[in-house]
Amino acid sequence: MSQKLRWGILGCASIAKRSVIPGLQQSRLNEVAAIASRDQDKATQAAEELNIPTAYGSYESLLADSSIDAIYIPLPNHLHKEWSIRAAEAGKHILCEKPLALTEAEAAEMAEAAAKAGVLLAEAFMYRYHPRYDMIKELITSGAIGEVRGIRSAFTFNSSANHGNVRFRKDWGGGSIYDVGCYPINAARILLDSEPEAVTVQAFFSPEHDHVDMMASGLIEFEGDVSLTFDCGMWAAYRNPLEVVGTEGLIEVPFAYSLPENGANFFLTTGDGRKEIEVPHANAYSEQGDHMAEAILNNKPLRFPTEDAIHNMKVIDACLQSAHERKRIVL
């Protein structure tokens, strides 16, 4: 294996072209060597636009390329399981977009396939690799805001007019809980360093959008009577804040998951007043790629192993069940 991790991109999704590929290209330990589409012309055009050496007209051709070390999968949610398993069987390490799968059982099956093949499988929650989350976690564990009493968060945007959006296909794993609700759930689990005990979610399932949840609001209960209250949506104004409330202070993150340029700073309020915490500039996509490269090239442990994705899917399963059945689900 070379000194840099050689990536193949399985699909030409906008998240890949806009964010992940440039992030990998700007990182220290990665290079994007190939991209594949089911349409050769589409793959060739993407390769030319993004300065990628090789373009394949099928996913199978990319997986057969022995020079590729790792595969990034930005395909629609319902294809994550199939192509992650096929990539594992081809001996490729895998970075798969969130949510990793459609169910906890699917995620466990994907993890088993990766383990059997001796490759790493990671979920592409890029936000958590940004250095500010270490800073936030350190403030919490140091007692800067006292005991944590609760977390509030949201992730909403409005793309409701685009009826051809894959996020609006129920059989493809569409819906706001899968697409953006997964972020507050993941962040709360990280910051509290524990797993939920129960969930209650109310959702708006839109007949105009194949009955996927276009908006959802939830309460997720953790041990010690601490909870996450969150909402997520694809038919609401854009926002993605996070707030950690403690007995002695407050942490406010205006843009918790989708970062504007130079928008990583957050705020700490204590008895000494409210101050802005400056965060070093970093590309979360580059950091994510370098972390995975360190694990593969230098045999370092993944900070967020596949088990974390399985646990997150368990909570998502419960949220969807609660929303459909309109009842509290105990985990």
UniProtKB/TrEMBL annotation:
UniProt keyword terms in alphabetical order: Oxidoreductase
Signal peptide stretch: none
Entry superkingdom: Bacteria
Residue ranges of every copy of the GFO/IDH/MocA-like oxidoreductase domain listed in the record: 135-252
Pfam families the UniProt entry points to: GFO_IDH_MocA, GFO_IDH_MocA_C3
Single GO molecular function: nucleotide binding
Record-annotated Gfo/Idh/MocA-like oxidoreductase N-terminal domain positions: 5-123
Family per similarity comment: Belongs to the Gfo/Idh/MocA family.
Stated name of the protein: Oxidoreductase
Organism listed in the record: Paenibacillus glucanolyticus
Phylogenetic placement of the source organism: Bacteria, Bacillati, Bacillota, Bacilli, Bacillales
